[in-house]
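The aim of this short unit is practical: by the end, you should be able to scan a pair of folded records and say something sensible about each. We start with the first protein, listed as its amino acid sequence and then its structure tokens.
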Amino acid sequence: MWYASRATGVVALLLLTAVMILGLLVTRQGRLPGLPRFAVSGLHRNLSLLAAVFVVIHVLTAVFDGYVDIPITASVIPFTSPYERFWLGLGAVSLDLMLAAIVTSLLRRHLSRRAWRAVHLLAYLSWPVAWVHSMFSSGDLQHGVLLILAIGCAAAVVGGAAWRLIAAARDVPRAERVSVQMSAVHQQPEETTSR
């Protein structure tokens, strides 16, 4: 059980990182370069659900491992575990945020876009909380290949977030696009004549 818990935790971290990067790289139109919208949304949804399955297996194998006493309620009620209360509590917080994002995504057609988006944005908080839980709930990710893997996951997410912020800063609100483009067109001949 101990090996299964650790292995599924590492796989869950990798899958959640892939989901996070995919979510960060998707444009406002829901597209990635070279892929149609349905493929991107399907990939994002399926990776999210696969990650959730690995998280559930990770939690169950940790609970059923007889080495330490972790009650099943500690997986959803933060900071109630008698073992590693803080670090496992962070795992419960991350799981709760992830469950909120999954449930609202499954019920998306019954919710307003604004309500869905507000809850879905919590997934951006879920990943760093899960990463900290992964790093400090056990010593596995604190050295060797797994440390490199964890740092690589963090670097990929930070890189994706930086790309998204830079792209958002370049975006001009739709209402201002025509006037910005028209002013750029009108200024271009003046700049070439002054040279």
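Turning to the second protein, read its sequence before its tokens, just as you did above.
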Amino acid sequence: MTSDNAITGARVLIVDDDAPARRLLQVRLRALGCEVASAEDGQHALMEIKKHEPALMFLDLQMPKMGGIEVLRHLRATGMNFPVVVITAHGSIESAVEAMREGAYDFITKPLDANHFELVVRKALEREGLKRGLELLSEETDSRYRLVAGHSENMRQAVDTARKAAASSATVLLLGESGTGKEVFARAIHHWSARSHQPFVAINCVGLSKELLESELFGHEKGAFTGADQLKRGKMELANGGTVFLDEIGDVTQELQTKLLRFLQEREFDRVGGRAPIRVNVRIIAATNRDLESAVAEGRFREDLFHRLNVIAIALPPLRERSEDIPLLANYFLQRYAAEAKRRFSGISAAAQAQLAAYRWPGNVRELANVIERAVVLGSGPLLAVEDLPGRIAAAEAPANAHLSYRQSIESMRRQLVTQALARSGGNRSAAAKALGLHEKYFLKLIKGLGIG
């Protein structure tokens, strides 16, 4: 039987007072790629759950000391909601129905049917993967991925490469200045991939000591160091089946580089203070604003780790090199922050758009977002005006699109005018066409030709 993303490395607890039955389940679950623990009664089960919460539990209903129904009631009372599959003897369906009322996810009957058993495991762990994904991800909607869109050629190339990379499990290295949107890009790759229903976990490698970062990545055993009063599952373990984003990978210490290399080679790791290796199936996306090749040449970054990370490299262009995307991004942020602040803004004035295009944006997309948020808070509307912009931008002189050809400059201006008209009309294309003095059919053709959604 083959394993898949949701199953490989998943922790499963078997609770049954029948030792041969426990061993049979252990063999079958390990063949599927699961990490298995067991308990012979309900009391021991609660101790195991406290030590490390499983992703799935198989629970016999008829046991001494504490039966299966009591265990289910305890789990519900304490707020634990991982899936529980109850085990019942053939002909005891009434007990299974009672267990389902107490919160059990499903039931299986003895003797076990191998195909049905695998199906139950697969579905239960897929459900748990979805739940973990929702817990770990901040609330997002598809609109977030507009930030990886763009009309500029260099951005289109980056998006095209990212979409192709998303179809595989290959490691991706995102390169670019601070503020170019590397985490948003990483989330987009995850969103476009077959792992999209599994967790996406982001880890910033800057600002944490070597010990804290190692614990954050790989987890630690109880008593591994001072203050480790309970077992902690690391982000690699929590993201099993999904994607781990390692931001600022260029700042990782040499010692941790060695452990990351081992993980990328073997797809297994040890918790801090642990002895048994843990295998997981995660996709790695790393990012840095540093020149890793120079760091390798200077001996500050392992060459073998660099090659492991640099399977598919995607360079994200700075905002000053994609100035034709500024109107698209500025209007996106305007609508987003205006909605959050409950302010009415219909668009950005032509003069303000010209100043946004003239500025060099050393802070890239992050700086643009901050500028628009400030303008929404301080501006009076209904149009975002030049006086709403910070002085450094209002006084900018050199046009950011000076490198564009005549044709590109004209197309950029047409796109700005159309985007602004649509923003002012609240997306009403008839009203936008009328405001620009254009026939609606021509306006629709213009929108399609410019690639404006």
